[in-house]
Amino acid sequence: MSDARHLLVDVLGKLDAAAEADRPIPEPTDPVGHRSLCIGMSVYDDFDGAYFTMQSIRLHHPEVADRLSILIIDNHPEGLQSQALRDVVASTDNARYLPFAGFRGTAVRDLLFREADADFVCCVDSHVLFAPGALHALLSYFDEHPDTDDLIQGPLWSDDLKSRVGTHFLPEWGAGMYGRWGRDDRVDDPSGQPFEIGMQGLGVFACRRDAWPGFNPRFRGFGGEEGYIHEKFRRSGGRVLCLPAFGWLHRFARPTGVPYKPTFDDRIRNYHIGWSEIGWDTQPIGDHFFEEYATNAGFGEVFDRAVAQSTSPFGYFDAIFSLNLDSAVERRIAAEHRYGQLDIAWRVERVSAIETPGNHHRGCALSWRGMIDTARRRGYQNFLGLEDDAVFLDTTREVLAGAVAELDDLEWDVCFLGGVEQTAGPGARPGQRFIKPAGYVTCTHATAIHSRVFDRILADIPEDGPDFDRWLDDHVAIDQYLGSRCASGELNGVILTPRVASQPALTTFADGDLALRDRYVI
Ligand SMILES: [Mn+2]
Q1: CA of 196 to the centre of ligand 1 (A)
Q2: Looking at the 3D structure of the chain, how many domains does it have?
Q3: Are the C-beta atoms of 436 and 497 separated by less than 8 Å?
Q4: What does the angle CA 452 – CA 455 – CA 460 come to, to the nearest 5 degrees?
Q5: Dist. CA 396–CA 166, nearest whole Å
Q6: Arithmetic mean of pLDDT over the chain
Q7: Where are the beta strands (DSSP E) in 318-474?
């Protein structure tokens, strides 16, 4: 591109961003009820693709229409195309629209499996057309194998419709991606039996909903799932199968450009996160990327930073939520700056805090309840909740690295990265240097919650309404509730030592963080 064109693209991008800040996100549409198979797609500025994919399913697969639902997650719901997408879904029987702006990336497809109300889920790119009879073949397979733990994929058709060009991926690197198209001749009999493959491109894949092993929730941006997710199916006792009759066509060409920006750092980071999770040697990732891209300006730094991000001690947490009122824009910007200093900005998910002007404890407790519910729905092991005024100690990374190693050996329920110890706990146990049992700790500006108590806390704190009012009368605030439960031993609470997170007001109190006041510089 010429410099002038670059400049224009840059200006247009800024105008779009400004317009997006004011554009309302379309409301989700109602659930459509349980079906055998939910076909889910995650869409990013691809109205045309999603429209034709959805309508083709409805027009060209009538034999299975009554057994299907369609779920569309809009991963750029602030975008120009979103209202039109919502409108067409809203007018479609058995289809549901869900906006999701928490983070961007191909791993958002994980949410399709969490949200689908169906026995089986077929995940499809928003620009794929199924071969005639493909969905019938898929449902027939599932009817015959209702308890299957297998991942079912099918052959990619060529654009000229004359051949099935890709049945699987070969375990080879090419152009910054793991997996190159391969072809198994057994696909030539379209009514043939499914055969086992190592992996396949993820334009179309399907499984029993409860057999979905999940993408790593730390994935961001484009790529890194192929090979990794296939291995996870095998680890959980399933196979990866190519079903010859389950053919699909993929629009590869994007003559007007790709709306999202695939970046090296996302991809390198995703590969390291995924391969580390399943215990694969990560060396070939670097070998490939340096072989291909070492001459790109600044590539070494990009690579090193992506690897460092993938091994951050904050990676211990399945999610990092940042609680922020929509109206508190300056606090959001300041918080994002601090997340940048900690190099966690790439994975922090902003959560819109519930505003209750009469009593902010009310909104705070409801917001925390909401985060716990979200984490439970997404199947997270734990999450770290940050409030937008949390400030951090100069040695946060080092202390947290030590702390998470100690957490690994412990059945903890609540972990305070900061707070005020109204009453001290029993003192550190043997082997504990960076954590100790929590007494009555107040404040929730940096608090992690483990999945083993999600249900219990959600049962304790009623949803909004008269029951919640009574709960709030009894407990006053979420931190009082957590603190008292930890003090009584009903929750197994731990607190970091030293406390790596504080709040500006706490650094002025002797029983707060006055002692280390000058070190909360992040
Ligand atoms: Mn695609």
Answers
A1: 23
A2: 3
A3: yes
A4: 120
A5: 48
A6: 94
A7: 320-324, 348-352, 382-387, 391-392, 414-416, 420-423, 435-437, 440-442, 446-450
Q: What is the 3-state secondary structure (H, E, C) of 185-253?
A: HHHHCCCCCCEECCECCCCEEEEEHHHCCCCCCCCCECCCCCCHHHHHHHHCCCCEEECCCCCEEECCC
- Which tens digits make up the pLDDT trace of 320-345? 999 999 999 999 999 999 999 999 99
- What is the rounded radius of gyration, in angstroms, for the C-alpha atoms of the chain? 25
* CA 166 to ligand 1 center in whole angstroms: 14
> What DSSP character marks residue 295?
T
333 in the same domain as 284: no
C-alpha span between 200 and 167 (Å, rounded): 7
Tokens (6 digits) for 257: 């450009």
Q: Domain check: are 353 and 320 in the same one? A: yes
Residue 7 placed within a domain: no
User: Which range is least confidently modeled, 305-309, 497-501, 511-515?
Assistant: 511-515
Examine the domain organization and report whether 304 and 418 are in the same domain: no
Q: Do 117 and 37 form a contact (C-beta atoms < 8 A)?
A: no
Residue 512 to residue 451: CA distance in whole angstroms: 28
Q: Domain check: are 119 and 242 in the same one? A: yes
Give the integer Cα–Cα distance in Å for 329 and 262. 28
Question: Residue 367 belongs to a domain with what CATH number?
Answer: 3.90.550.40
* Same domain as 333, residue 434: yes
Contact between 247 and 131 under an 8 Å Cβ cutoff? The reply is yes
**Residue 98 alpha carbon to ligand 1 centre in Å:** 20
CB neighbours of residue 93 within 10 Å: 9
Left (φ > 0), alpha (ψ -120 to 50) or beta: where does 96 sit? beta
Q: What does the H/E/C string look like for 49-61?
A: HHHHHHHHHHHHC
Residue 409 CA to ligand 1 centre (angstroms): 41
Distance 73 CA to ligand 1 centre (A): 15
Give distance in angstroms: CA of 230 to centre of ligand 1: 18
494 beta partners? 415, 437
Q: Is 216 left (phi over 0), alpha (psi -120 to 50) or beta?
A: beta
What range does the domain containing 202 cover? 26-250
Q: Is 10 part of a structural domain of the chain?
A: no
- 116, 37 Cβ separation under 8 angstroms: no
Q: 392 has which bridge partners?
A: 501
Among 205, 225, 250, give the residue marking a domain's end. 250
Per DSSP, the chain holds a count of helices (H) and strands (E) of 15, 25
Read off the pLDDT of residues 361-399 as tens digits, 9 standing for 90 and up: 999 999 999 999 999 999 999 999 999 999 999 999 999
Query: From the CA of 490, how far away is ligand 1's center (Å)?
Result: 48
**Domain shared by 285 and 216, yes or no:** no
Check whether residue 416 and residue 498 sit in a common domain: yes
